[in-house]
Amino acid sequence: MTPSAVSKLVSRLEVRLGTRLLVRSTKGIELTAEGQSFYLRCLSIIEEVAAAEREATRSSVPQGRLRVSCNVPFGTHYLLPLIPKFLARYPKVQLDVALTDRVIDLMEEKTDVAIRTGVLADSGLISRKLGASELITVAAPSYVDTHGMPPTPRDLQDHHCLGFSFARHASAWAFVDRDGERLTVMPACRTCVHDGESMRLLALGGVGIARLALFHVAKDLRAGRLLRVLEEWSSREVEPVHAVFVGPGKMLAPRVRAFLDFLVDEVVLPVPDAGATLTALRNR
């Protein structure tokens, strides 16, 4: 800048502040007492801004508070068991985890990552797919002993079915008939719940027939606590699992990027039992 331009800017600053900052003397231009104080305070402010910028970008080491929202079934059976390993790997990260089947607004609730199952709505959020799991129909042995197995999907109308008390992307239960044609059934649900884990517990208690993701009930099936219902009519419909977040990946905080990478590496969803599937196909 030219000396005249600097002089004009200083004059404007002095007028705005209502005090003299610089004074000419035989030695040249010197700071007044007010000018010296103003200069030192401004240096301090500039250093604070620089420190804030350094803190935001100083390191690729994940650190700070990470807020995560997750639906109840996935959180209970997958996310919570993985947390000790994540915290051991990233000791400078503090986790704030909320389990809810409610679809939250990430910006409004200041959440870094949300894990969601099912088809994603067009929300403008960025996502990373963690896997997919078959949707299956199940019931407890005690329920089957009392009420029997429904022979066809349409016979579900005569059974106690479990439903959700909130709107879903697909409320109807999808099957495939013996000719390979897709058919859907909207069962009359006698009991409704607000989250998938509650539905699983009611199914285990013999209350009714439930439609849940395989990842949610795989252990129960292996242990015989639940049985597959209408497997020979299965449509092999799958439910994707995504981690969603705000903003482009290149702008993510290190703690968020580390958490997403960790989930992609660690989450392994079960696949349908090949033997059971072949048996079901032969019986059709």
List keywords for this structure.
single chain; 284 residues; alpha/beta; Arc Repressor Mutant, subunit A; D-Maltodextrin-Binding Protein, domain 2; 2 domains; seven-stranded mixed beta sheet; two-stranded antiparallel sheet; 13 strands; elongated; disordered C terminus; plasmid
Q: Number of folding domains?
A: 2
Name given to the CATH architecture of the largest domain: 3-Layer(aba) Sandwich
End-to-end gap: 86 Å
Radius of gyration: 30 Å
The main sheet comes to: 7 strands, mixed
Shape: elongated
Structural class: alpha/beta
CATH hierarchy class name of the largest domain: Alpha Beta
CATH topology of the largest domain: D-Maltodextrin-Binding Protein, domain 2
Detail the poorly predicted runs: 274-284
How much helical structure, as a percent, in the residues? 25-40%
Domain HTH lysR-type: 1-32
Pfam families: HTH_1, LysR_substrate
Protein name: LysR family transcriptional regulator
Family: Belongs to the LysR transcriptional regulatory family.
